[in-house]
Amino acid sequence: xxxxxxxxxxxxxxxxxxxxxxxxxxxxxxxxxxxxxxxxxxxxxxxxxxxxxxxxxxxxxxxxxxxxxxxxxxxxxxxxxxxxxxxxxxxxxxxxxxxxxxxxxxxxxxxxxxxxxxxxxxxxxxxxxxxxxxxxxxxxxxxxxxxxxxxxxxxxxxxxxxxxxxxxxxxxxxxxxxxxxxxxxxxxxxxxxxxxxxxxxxxxxxxxxxxxxxxxxxxxxxxxxxxxxxxxxxxxxxxxxxxxxxxxxxxxxxxxxxxxxxxxxxxxxxxxxxxxxxxxxxxxxxxxxxxxxxxxx
Amino acid sequence: xxxxxxxxxxxxxxxxxxxxxxxxxxxxxxxxxxxxxxxxxxxxxxxxxxxxxxxxxxxxxxxxxxxxxxxxxxxxxxxxxxxxxxxxxxxxxxxxxxxxxxxxxxxxxxxxxxxxxxxxxxxxxxxxxxxxxxxxxxxxxxxxxxxxxxxxxxxxxxxxxxxxxxxxxxxxxxxxxxxxxxxxxxxxxxxxxxxxxxxxxxxxxxxxxxxxxxxxxxxxxxxxxxxxxxxxxxxxxxxxxxxxxxxxxxxxxxxxxxxxxxxxxxxxxxxxxxxxxxxxxxxxxxxxxxxxxxxxxxxxxxxxxxxxxxxxxxxxxxxxxxxxxxxxxxxxxxxxxxxxx
Lengths: 297, 341
Prior knowledge:
The complex is a heterodimer.
Chain A: H1 4-9, H2 26-42, H3 50-76, H4 85-91, H5 94-107, H6 109-113, H7 117-121, H8 127-159, H9 164-193, H10 199-223, H11 243-254, H12 269-295
Helix pairs in contact in A: 2-8, 3-5, 3-8, 4-9, 5-8, 5-9, 5-10, 8-9, 8-12, 9-10, 9-11, 9-12, 11-12
Chain B: E1 5-13, E2 18-27, E3 31-35, H1 42-49, E4 57-62, E5 65-66, H2 71-77, E6 78-81, H3 93-103, H4 108-121, H5 137-149, E7 155-159, H6 167-182, E8 187-192, H7 195-201, E9 204-209, E10 212-218, H8 219-222, E11 225-233, H9 237-246, E12 251-253, E13 258-262, H10 267-278, E14 283-290, H11 295-307, H12 314-325
Parallel strand pairs in B: 3-8, 3-9, 6-7, 7-8
Antiparallel strand pairs in B: 1-2, 1-4, 4-5, 9-10, 11-13, 11-14, 12-13
Helix pairs in contact in B: 3-4, 4-5, 11-12
């Protein structure tokens, strides 16, 4: 009696079990594989069509305004970009936040929910490798999201014949800002996502954290006279209350992008140091808690 | 590699319970059943064998590698099929198994090739390209087995692989597990709380209870013939019993119309036949009793409790009593072997 499948297709031949004698590439390869898979998953690649919709929409929303800006510059023959690279990231900062809220739970909550985590740990990688791969994947996905529009702006500014040196330096400022956003957002977002196996809770909690902290920061800024025509310098300390304003304030101060007193910035070199230290503590602390979270899974 | 798993005085204590208590066991290549009630320490043992959880005391080797220091090397050579569901629903079986192969260190091309092979071996064909959320329990169990085998391990640890399957699916899975050893040459450690299915599948059984080793021996020795004769009559078993006792045989009742007669010699069969015929009764059954794996729980655990009387709680005694009642199923209130879930 033949197997039904052989009858139906007529091409499947049972050639028996074959042993694998090829190379086994070990832990670091496995960690890299997890990184690649997670980065792809953050954009819905290798998953169902439905899960590609949101990340791709956010990517488009983040990139399209850059195309418009470039078009305006080229057509109207402007002498500089109407919007600096870092300014672009601040103006469209909502999109990386949405991306983080939607996709950090995809990377962590999904593995918890479907009990895939123990399966990974039954393979060569360690708990530390898992956290490292997921963190790198989330940060890279965010970085990619923010680099795309800046690349468009940069190429456009070269196309429009804007000074090469200035554009390049400001692009580097933008990339540095994007890296800080990516690290800080990834650390905070993943920590929250790892706390719940429910994706919906993760999305809501991350978005809530970002929105509420930024509302509080703006509120405190306004209370201290930071929103007036002649802003009170010390009101800028309010930027420490929210991840987005924290990076924005630090970058503006350090790279000398404070073209007007209304631009949010760390008030003074000491403040810049405090802002930087806060970012470092938040990233390292979240990463450490994340490691601890997985120690007993 | 002669010994697949070897433990020596393996102990695991949690703050409130002792999950494993000085477990010393040696497992040879083949299909080995790890038997024990829920909470007997099976999953704890698997975790320790994978090098995921350190033992409180004692040592152990898997494939000749030390569990305390060579965990990553063990995990590269061992496959693990967890008891619980572990499949993301929005990913296809192919995509998932390829990823797990790479997580075991296989290069991308080899991972794809072996995934195609192994999914065919476990019996997944066209459906492998569909998201796994729509799979039946039987298909999911096959994918779980496939991910444990895809990197061609030397040993697979299967945790309750027949859970939730209907009788046909269970038979298929058991046949597949036999093939994993006979055709693929991979040693198997399979846990279950259903004893009947292990009698058919395993070469060797390791029985643990309350973290202690009850017995470790070949399946044949568990089921060897006893010196007992089961006699089933149509009626009046009390009279039969008296007559046989008078004839000098040792007899005890074992359920309605069923008597167990100790075999004194060849003429015991004649005595039973003649006695039943004289009384004008029908003889339904006359057969030499075989041991069943379940008996070990009825007998040995009773002794275990006796010697550990101070530690035994009423709850465990109740569990043991229930085990004695349900011969094929250690899991109290579980489903007897061969019955649809």
